[in-house]
Specification:
358 residues; alpha/beta; TIM Barrel; eight-stranded parallel barrel; two-stranded antiparallel sheet; globular; binds beta-D-glucopyranose
């Protein structure tokens, strides 16, 4: 009997130990999976979300970082500070459109300076941590417009390097091929360039949502000239809206005929509202007909206009865009058209309220 019991125990002990070991292994596996899903922002995900749902998720956003040179040299010394990611989220924004100027950071072989890329890694990491969607917007529109054929290789090289680098990021990261193609970068040329860029990106990012806008400064009236790869449905189309220019760009040094204007108001008369609605509706109709969702990637008014008019205008454009089903990003956080005053560390309340008002 004793023999039997000891045999039994002897036999059962290792079995029970193996069983415990298996349970432990399973538990460890479950814990690892839980940790992985919590940090899913940095992991690859099955990207089964449609462009329309991605566009909805983009919601309300703001353009950041374009004109912060010091930041791109050392992100601890720029105007934009780490805590702003969360602050932007807490203020009600759900996307940041990061305006990128990498051309001056490329060597003779068009390789991007690793330090600049590490800064971009950091921006993405912090943006995702703050639960923001992040649009990587190649903002080299002036260089591309001045000499498109000469700059084409830089344009494609950028996506050849950036796309694979972020291929495993979650679908909260979105690529915008190029801000406001214009002038010498004609609509025909842009259609050719964008097709090549899409092909390059799709090699490493078959499921990444892309944002692409039409030529002529992403103008709504140019939507009909835009040719997209028909079978690629994971594309959001972007337009910019600064109408009426004489109001939104009054006093802006770069704005030609509007640079000497001042005192232009936007009072929200039925005619003024109708003009905006009918122009934005052209984009909505195009969207419906072509089954492509719309992201209004820039709108706003220069700081020289009176604040009441600017707030009224901003609210009206934002609400109209939302009614038409567009997501949007305000132009811009810092520099000019500002919604946040870095020197005073304070939101420009009338603009922020205009953007967030329901
Ligand atoms: C440009 C800015 C300009 C804004 C409004 C943006 O696309 O990058 O420099 O202030 O449009 O004109």
């Amino acid at each position: 009997m004793i023999k039997f019991v000891s045999k039994l125990t002897n036999h059962r002990l290792p079995l029970w130990t193996t069983y415990k070991y298996k349970i432990m292994k399973r538990l460890l596996f479950i814990i690892a999976m839980l940790i992985a899903s919590i940090s899913m922002n940095s992991l690859s995900l099955a990207q089964d979300i449609s462009a329309r749902d991605q566009c909805l998720k983009l919601g309300r956003g703001v353009n950041i970082l374009g004109y912060d040179k010091a930041f791109w040299q050392d992100h601890t010394k720029g105007r934009f500070k780490e805590q702003y990611f969360k602050m932007i989220k807490d203020a009600g924004f759900s996307n940041i459109r990061v305006n990128l100027f990498p051309f001056s950071q490329m060597d003779s072989l068009n390789m991007i300076d690793p330090h600049w890329l590490e800064t971009l890694d950091w921006v993405i990491e912090k943006g995702l941590e703050a639960n923001l969607m992040i649009i990587l917007d190649l903002h080299e529109f002036t260089a591309m417009a001045d000499n498109p054929e000469a700059k084409k290789e830089m344009f494609l090289s950028f996506w050849k390097q950036v796309a694979p680098r972020y291929k495993d990021k979650s679908n909260n990261v979105v690529f915008e091929l190029l801000n406001e193609p214009n002038q010498k970068l004609t609509v025909e040329m842009w259609n050719r360039f964008l097709a090549e860029a899409v092909k390059i990106i799709r090699e490493s990012n078959p499921d990444r949502t892309l944002i692409i806008g039409p030529g002529n400064w992403n103008g709504i009236e140019s939507l009909n000239t835009l040719t997209l790869p028909e079978n690629d449905r994971n594309i959001i189309v972007t337009v910019h809206f600064y109408y009426p220019m004489r109001f939104t760009h009054q006093g802006a040094a770069w704005a030609g005929e509007y640079k000497n204007l001042s005192g232009i108001k936007w009072t929200g008369t039925p005619e003024e509202k109708e003009e905006i609605e009918s122009k934005l509706k052209v984009a909505a109709d195009w969207s419906l007909k072509n089954d492509r969702p719309i992201f209004l990637g820039e709108f706003g008014s220069y700081d020289k206009g009176d604040m009441d008019s600017r707030a009224r205008y901003t609210a009206f454009v934002a609400r109209t865009a939302e009614k038409l089903g567009f997501s949007w990003a305000y132009w811009q956080f810092d520099s000019d058209f500002i919604v946040y005053n870095i020197d005073e560390e304070a939101w420009v309340e009338p603009i922020l309220n205009a953007l967030m008002k329901k």
